[in-house]
Amino acid sequence: MKYELEKTLWTGADYEQMGWHDARVHGISFGKNYQLLLDIDYIFEWVHPKEGETFFKFWIAPCTLIFENVYKLAFDLELSVPSEMYIDGIVRSKESLTPNGVLIEYDWQIDFDGGGITFNGTDFNQHVRCPPQLTEVQELDIISRGGVSFSTVYSSQS
Question: Pairing with 122, which of 51, 90, 131, 143 sits 20 to 30 Å away (CA)?
Fold first, then answer.
């Protein structure tokens, strides 16, 4: 089986059709030009169990999620197991002009089971790094995802 990936770059224009619930976070970093980067396992599709099966399966790919022009960044997290950091959801609200009046910005909130991250920022880009894999759990193991990475390059090799 193969998942037909619609595209390898998702942006703020795709926000309404995207959902990050249960996306595993493997790493957080800060890039140049006020970027917040997340290395995540993005779930492209939840596959309902077939007759006789009990559990869902998941089409997942490692992705680099980059928020642009980030400021007023605040972390309020208390994770009982930091190595198991899963996103509950990402909320974009309060559209307004940036302080210089040139760009549109939003209030962003990334929710986790143990708190969240809030910030102001203009937009995001989510780079898919390889084709989605069908799994029985909601994350990829470190080897199949190619380790922790903040690359924005797509490779057709999974």
Answer: 131
- Separation CA 49–CA 75 (nearest Å): 37
Measured CA to CA, the distance from residue 64 to residue 36 in angstroms comes to: 10
Closest CA to 113 of 91, 82, 140: 82
Task: Say how far apart CA 23 and CA 39 lie, in whole Å.
Answer: 10
CA angle 56, 61, 66 (to 5 degrees): 125
pLDDT at 52: 85
Q: 29: closest CA among 152, 114, 154?
A: 152
Write out pLDDT tens, residues 89-138.
999 999 999 888 999 999 999 999 889 999 999 999 999 999 999 999 99
Give the residue from 34, 26, 63 showing the smallest Cα distance to 141.
26
3-state helix, strand, coil in the chain (%, to 5): 5, 50, 45
Phi, psi of 92, deg, nearest 5:
-110, 125
pTM over 0.90: yes
Q: What is the DSSP string of 91-136?
A: EEEEEEE-TTSSSEEEEEEEEETTEEEEEEES-EEEEE-S--EEES
